TrEMBL record:
<keyword id="KW-0227">DNA damage</keyword>
<dbReference type="GO" id="GO:0003677">
    <property type="term" value="F:DNA binding"/>
</dbReference>
<dbReference type="InterPro" id="IPR001650">
    <property type="entry name" value="Helicase_C-like"/>
</dbReference>
<comment type="similarity">
    <text>Belongs to the helicase family. RecQ subfamily.</text>
</comment>
<dbReference type="GO" id="GO:0009432">
    <property type="term" value="P:SOS response"/>
</dbReference>
<dbReference type="InterPro" id="IPR036388">
    <property type="entry name" value="WH-like_DNA-bd_sf"/>
</dbReference>
<keyword id="KW-0378">Hydrolase</keyword>
<keyword id="KW-0547">Nucleotide-binding</keyword>
<keyword id="KW-0233">DNA recombination</keyword>
<keyword id="KW-0862">Zinc</keyword>
<dbReference type="GO" id="GO:0043138">
    <property type="term" value="F:3'-5' DNA helicase activity"/>
</dbReference>
<dbReference type="InterPro" id="IPR036390">
    <property type="entry name" value="WH_DNA-bd_sf"/>
</dbReference>
<dbReference type="InterPro" id="IPR011545">
    <property type="entry name" value="DEAD/DEAH_box_helicase_dom"/>
</dbReference>
<protein>
    <recommendedName>
        <fullName>DNA helicase RecQ</fullName>
        <ecNumber>5.6.2.4</ecNumber>
    </recommendedName>
</protein>
<dbReference type="GO" id="GO:0030894">
    <property type="term" value="C:replisome"/>
</dbReference>
<dbReference type="GO" id="GO:0006260">
    <property type="term" value="P:DNA replication"/>
</dbReference>
<dbReference type="GO" id="GO:0006310">
    <property type="term" value="P:DNA recombination"/>
</dbReference>
Amino acid sequence: MNKELRLTDQLQKYFGFDRFKGQQEEVIKSVLDGNDSFVLMPTGGGKSLCYQLPALIMEGTAIVISPLIALMKNQVDSIRSFGTDDGIAHFLNSSLTKVATQQVKDDVISGRTKLLYVAPESLTKQDNIDFLKNVNISFYAIDEAHCISEWGHDFRPEYRRIRPIVKEIGQAPIIALTATATAKVQHDIQKNLGMLEARVFKASFNRPNLYYAVRPKIKPENQIIKFIKENEGKSGIIYCLSRKRVEELAETLQVNGIKALAYHAGMDSATRSGNQDKFLMEEVDVIVATIAFGMGIDKPDVRFVMHYDIPKSLEGYYQETGRAGRDGGEGQCIAFYSYKDIQKLEKFMQGKPVAEQEIGRQLLLDTASYAETAICRRIMLLNYFGEKMEEPCGNCDNCLNPKKQVEASDEVVRALKAIREVNEKYKAEHISDILTGKLTAAVKSFKHDELKAFGSGNDHSDRFWNAVFRQSMIAGLINKDIEHYGLLRINEEGHRFMENPQSFLLVRNHNYDELEEEAASSSGSPSGGSGDPELFAMLKDLRKKIAQKHQLPPFVIFQDPSLSDMSIQYPISLEELKFIQGVGEGKARRYGKEFVQLIKSYVEDNEIDRPQDMVVKSVANKSKLKVFIIHSIDRKLSFEDIADSKGLELKDLITELEAIVNSGTKLNIDYYINDVLDEDHQEEVFDYFREAEDDSVDAALEELGEDEYSEEDIRLMRIKFMSEMGN
């Protein structure tokens, strides 16, 4: 009892707390007794204290091996803030000058330093090894120990060299700590560190205050801005997988009046730590970061963590979401998911050693399975970490808005048979073409229209079949061969299912491709139920009036999707109008004045609350491609060369040209059209558009004759017409 009392006294003395949290006290006793210890404690559970307090109490210096310079600095500052002597904690890494390094070594040798933080890379340097041989080491603490495991989400090869170096420096007890580890990762860590006999402390992974949700990745910027504006003043972290995306998103948020900064490993360290400090000091509300941000960042009141890109593993996801609501208060964890992102991550694995690909593929499969599941997300997450939870949590999107599921046992069998019939040598897209009976060039050339499976699934769309393949993969019936990228193979479980089909519930609501496609194809016209029908009708009347005044077809002024967007966003200034779909600066200036006047008085008369958070302003660097195309056309480069240099198909380039012209920029593409169409044909199409009701390409082809013109011809002439008549 006396020892326990003394421990609580020490806790009060050094950290000002009067009681321990969870298993902290047991862990600390284990370390004080000289045992090897393995600590698995979720973010926010108080892992750091498990080695900080024993280090302050024991004789000698504790060596803390930690993966990030920013994390070490943060921890050292935190320890120093509890005492009067700065020498009590130091870090030794490549960021120090020679003089500073000598100061650290002097403090350690003199016995002033109780905690010495070292990066694994610094630990392997011979002069550091020689120096540490002369230090009285109380114990080694290995923080973020999941970095040791190849199955862990932040694998660092240098972490696997810790054990031999510890042996060389001198034996002392080891405490390994991590916030995320499956049973496999835990065993890997203990084996690598030679501590299979260690005492294991495992806290529950359940954080009841965290709300988990996965949303379709449709216009994610709009969703993010809307969410942040509805949660004004709250702290949040948004994770992206690439540095480029981090910078673009941070800039978009800033342009939309949100206090946000970027953080990634490619920035110089002064900017990076400056941005981190501004977040901690609440000078900014949001940090947009790669996964490098947040390890050991002890900010208790992060209210939301968003994942712009789905993470590579559930462990990474769990650890990153764990940075929300560490004070026990609200924490919203929202991930944006598109299966295309999983495919992109799979592509990155090509060319890596096969063993690494296998691991990566399994981790991605677990992530996709979490994103697409219809069951309680918390049950699924806890189960992943080997913890059982009987009742649904009531605090995730699947509990609060259950997904629709449909019986698809018959469809799964049809899909498996189609894979078998093509000898497991084709990708999902090709097999779905066979099932839906599509006569593509590939289907014809391989004579796959003669197969039994051809057309056997034409009662569903190809998007439906892609969902069947994906969820069969998640259910462990088929595998995707990464080496031969994307070929579908049936495994033993799949063969058993074909012989003896079981019930198979397909999650319909998470058929994300379908949602994405709907979003891309819907122009948001009020007839589809979005927008303000009364305003839309008024805008159409105004457009007609202006068109008559200028003697132009109405679609040249603004197209329907633009009017529809106006009836949703209610822009009341030219500045706001230029961000409406298909408008841009030129058109806003030329035709916008009367439109914004009409909208302004409509808003005032009807006392409308405008969804300002949805007027997402875009960032100038998004228009780099646009500028490149305009310059290339000024230089009269061939369209094929322009498209090739940007890795575009010709039809994609034409789409870009349409967007440029529709938003009010004048382009002269005569030099290209003159090579494609003679003068008479050009005149015929031009006259057609002058009289046309709308700008439909199909209607033009029907009227002018498909044997006379291609779709490309009509689109190019429409660009010329819009440019000359409207801009």
